[in-house]
Amino acid sequence: MATPTRLKKRLGSFLRAVRQAAGKSMDEAADHLRVERPTVSRYETGEALPVWSTVHMLLSFYDATSGDLAQGARLHEDAKDEPPSVRLPAGAPKAFRKLVNAERDAVRERRLSPFVVPGLLQTRRYAEALEEAAHVFYTPDMRPDGVIASRMNRQKPLEGPDPMALHVLLDEAVIRREIGGREVVREQLEHLLDLAQRTNITLQVIPYTVGGYGTMNGSFTIVDYPESESVPGVYLEYPAGGVWVDDAEDVKRFTTTFDQTVARALPPADTTHLIEQQLESLAR
């Protein structure tokens, strides 16, 4: 079955809202299209993406306004251009697969990273250097090039007409450590400066002077969903895999830790300045 994604769900919710406002039932819509009722249901849940002619037929049947037709066209175009699912390498942990699937529905992701630049912000050469360092954790069915390819593909939700918001907290050690050598880390820091200019990305460095923050035992990722009532998901990463957390009380501890650390981290402008200073140091 096709995967319901954020943009397909958005189009489906729009179609359902217009139908209900018109006082039409799902059965009536199905009869008009000459399809079965479950087909219309899949359109409205985002499990299936209708072609534009079908969307236009439905909106016309609902006596939609010209504004609704224009909005439907935009939503359909966005859903049609949504990037395909990320192909994960063999042996990827179950919790990590859940994170990747959750990212397709996320409106925002928050990441605290005390050791390395997170995958969503990595350059290819930086990622290659990390994988080379972690080779002892590879199982026989895992291929480094597959791991890196999937990591690069995961960055696609940050692009496009409706990109996911991303807020990353990096420990100062992350920008100081010369992973892959000076040339590789210089390229990575320049990439961070470019990303920091995007309106959907917020980057903050946690300076050494802050001292301790959170548990300092590892990185974690908070995935926020479009529905305000939905509990965020949290992914905890460790060397041999990861754990997915969605218990409301446990999640609250991580969101509180993140918010408290945000308040102690450098503002985005000062973060940019610190990265620029590190680049100048690497050039000497």
Q: How is the secondary structure organized here?
A:
Elements: H1 6-21, H2 26-33, H3 37-45, H4 52-61, H5 66-80, H6 94-105, E1 108-113, H7 124-133, H8 144-153, E2 165-171, H9 172-176, H10 182-196, E3 201-206, E4 220-224, E5 233-238, E6 241-245, H11 248-264, H12 268-283
Parallel strand pairs: 1-2, 2-3
Antiparallel strand pairs: 1-4, 4-5, 5-6
The gist of it:
The protein is of the alpha/beta class.
The largest pleated sheet is described as: 6 strands, mixed
Number of helices: 12
N/C terminus separation = 55 Å
Which range best describes the helical content: under 10%, 10-25%, 25-40%, 40-55%, 55-70% or over 70%? Answer: 40-55%
How many strands appear in the DSSP assignment?
6
Mean pLDDT comes to 89
**Strand coverage percent:** 5-15%
Secondary-structure class: alpha/beta
N-to-C SSE string, H for helix and E for strand: HHHHHHEHHEHHEEEEHH
Q: Extract low-pLDDT stretches.
A: none
Detailed description of the structure:
With 284 residues, the chain is of the alpha/beta class. It is 50% helix and 12% strand. α1 (6-21) packs antiparallel against α5, α4 (52-61) runs antiparallel to α5 (66-80) and α7 (124-133) runs antiparallel to α8 (144-153). It starts with 5 loop residues before the first helix and ends with a helix. The model has no long low-confidence stretch (mean pLDDT 89).
Task: Give the key terms.
284 residues; alpha/beta
